[in-house]
Fold:
Amino acid sequence: MTVATQTGGGHVQRGGGGSSGLADVVELILDKGLVIDVFVRVSLVGIEILTIDARVVVASVDTFLRFAEATNRLDLYGKGKGGKDLTELTQGVMEGGAKGKTTGVIDAAVDKVEELLGGNNREEEREEAPRRRRPQRTREREA
Amino acid sequence: MSATYVYGLVRSDAELPDDLVGLGPSGTVTTVVHDKVAAIVGDVPLDRPLGTRDDLVAHEAVVDSVAARTTVLPMRFPAVIEEEGVVGELLAPHHDRFVRALDQLEGTVQYTLKGRYEQDVLLREIVEEDSGVRELQERIRGVPEEAAYYDRVKLGELIVKALEERRDVDAKDIVDRIGPFAEAVSTTTPTQPEDVVNAAFLVRRDGAEEFEKAVEELGADTGEWLHLRLLGPLAPYDFVPEE
Amino acid sequence: MGIVSGLLGLPVAPVRGVLWLAQQIQDQAEQQYYDPARIRAELEWVDEARRTGELSEEECAERENELLQRLMVRRA
Structure:
């Protein structure tokens, strides 16, 4: 059963040990682990062997359209209530980017995101951030 | 002749949790011991082929519950063998190999870390930085969906490419930062454009707390743009020695 | 039977180009249908739907079994 739990500071979603989602389980036990030839023989006796290939897909037109749509939706939102227009956003990035050069990529990205979400206006950051972010998977669910 | 399901292998002196529930009709999980190695086994449903979601979930739950307590070599699903063959065909002929692998992994446990971009944050950043993207967006605006089909495909392609370029950099940063807390790292190339990292870390049990703390700190630093999931402790799926 | 062959297989027999095209469409549709990466993405989507409560536990389990069947058909 899937139970999404938060531990510690709660910045990382936890799973595993019987509480992973099926997608994770499939990846762990169908792609990996020990295979011994004696098991293969049994498959001939009537139990199907399932082999999964983990090949990397080349992004398809479907994927491209999905991202085009997401990007356009984003733009519409930016034009909507409380959103910044492109010029303001661009300024934010320039500032964030310049600062970032001295702090390493991850820190730079964090800086940049902070700029994007709030700029210098802390009030706005608090108000805007939760709506703009992807819904966080923090809620616990009964198994 | 009856069939037996094999979940994994442990040292014969290993202690297993007593609340394991298998995928067979009885749900029972026991061990078959041969010299220094033991197979974790159970019964098999005979009236249907294996492979339901409950089968998979049960396999993983047994293996990883054992892994939380002791070193286990996990079997790939589905591992079925005739009951009479567990010792004669599985344990005895491969005994030394199994012992070597268990010794190699002794005292370690796997964690799998998966990271995915917070989509909107990254898309916004890409729109900012890429004038080609903005141009295309302008061109598409107000044009009926059908008419702008190729422009939309092109736009999506640019976005996906930009995501993948960022991913290469960010994934390396993440692995570089967490890697020092692990004995070994094994990374898998993500399949979705918004997936950043999928990495397995082999961690010493006595260093697990520190490892988890490092991941938690990474999560705190990157939470605005990265959604991290940590699976584990798990069996060392990605570190089973090849023969 | 192929996904598309049921629709296109009957009346167009002699036209080679059309058959070739139909075959291409069918190949692509099947490739996508059985694409492990796509199936995994759908499994993740079901996980998400279970978390948010969008689908009930029964609906999720049913959908998951269906997706697993598709993963297994490949090399049966």
Remarks:
- The two ends of chain B are 30 Å apart (CA to CA).
- Chain B is about 45% helix and 25% strand.
- The CA atoms of residues 21 and 27 of chain B lie 5 Å apart.
